[in-house]
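U., I forgot to send this yesterday:
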Amino acid sequence: MKKLILSILLSILFFSCKEEPTKPQTETNLTLEVLDKSCTEVWIDIKVISKKI
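Result:
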C-alpha cells in the first residue's frame, strides 16, 4: 500500500509541471566603458538607456 501511494505521488510530481516559468527580459539597457585605469583605481562611464513601456 505504501509503495502504491509513493508511486502515485512521484508520478504526480514528475508529470505535473511541464511548463517552464516565465523568463525575465534579457534586453540590456546598460553600457559600461572604462575611461582610465591605474594601480589603485578605475574610472568607469556608466550609461543607462531608459525606455517607457
